[in-house]
Amino acid sequence: MDGSADRTGKTGGTDDPLLVAPAAILEGLPDAVVAMAPDGRIVFINTLAEELFGYTSEELVGRSVRMLWAERVQERYMRNLLLYFATEHPLRFTAEAWGVRRDGTEFIGEMSWGIVHTEVGPLLLAIGRDISDRRAAEERVRALAAMGERALAGAAPGELADEAVQLIRDRLPVGGVEVRRDDGTALAGAGDVTDAIELPIGTGDVLLVAPSRDLTAEEMSIVRAVANTLAVALARLRDEAKMRHDAVHDPLTGLANRTLLRDRLQQAQARAVREDADTGVLFVDLDDFKQVNDAYGHATGDAVLVEFAARLRGAVRPADTVARVGGDEFVVVCDHLDDAAAGALAERIREAIRPPVVLDGGEYVISASIGIAVGRDPYALLADADAAAYRAKGAGGGRVEVVRRG
Question: What are phi and psi for residue 288, nearest 5 degrees?
């Protein structure tokens, strides 16, 4: 190669043809080629290099190779070039380098570097290709793997949803991303998701992605992988929430169980002391419920209990705690309840359970004995209310007995 701007001629001969790189050979390589003199001047580029950088050969040959490097790395790369020429027997090597196109956009190239000897002296050949897309794909995979590891480690779904939105927004050509729960609320999101692609991520949840162009198969595979990771995380969230719920709720009626009742009694006790206010505890015992089970079977009996639990919950105040503590025994804990309010609440409960329960064409009339205790010590009130309900049942059932402690 003669070091001039001639693109068609070959370099002058040498004793060893293996030390010569004819232009025709360099043109035939499947990669971009840039040849540089020891002072950094460009002496040759092939057609693929013209396409990569966006310049013609005439615009580059004779000019400094600095113009092909990102500004932030120019000084470092130039020092390396001079050092390479100064080394007596430089090794050929492959490394990544940041280049810049004519339009100012940067790319990462995988370049092989080596010295060739020509008639006009040594030249440094840089042979390589743009690997920006490959690097971006690798980074997406690494980010996805990291997200998957955090999901398996138990990261909060909300944090994973934020990470998923950031991953897609940063690494894919999209205008908007949203993780939407089955109730329509957004768990995480950014940008506009109008006309978005919807990917299911579990029962009712969706990942919304609004691409700014058609996504490649590889890019879509990343989006689907993100959706699958979120689906696992949200399923775990539901499972954990269900486990926590089941641990403190009655499986038949969904009311609080004894464990949750104890917690609510502790809270009521603390509030009673802190706020100097009375607490009310109601013990509700169904009358003759065993007859329903005996006459119609336990399936019918369970259905009656479920209906009774729903009516009981509907009769009390929203902040009151309703618990099932036995087969047909229920407890209600009420903050700030005086004697008059306790009586009114008991009457509301009686009115709620008065209509017959209709199941599969049959009608089942139920009544309950209700014991109410009012005072400052919820644990003692529970025992008092139980005793009061027992007395109400002994007096014929369907009655209310109120007691005050202290």
Answer: 55, 35
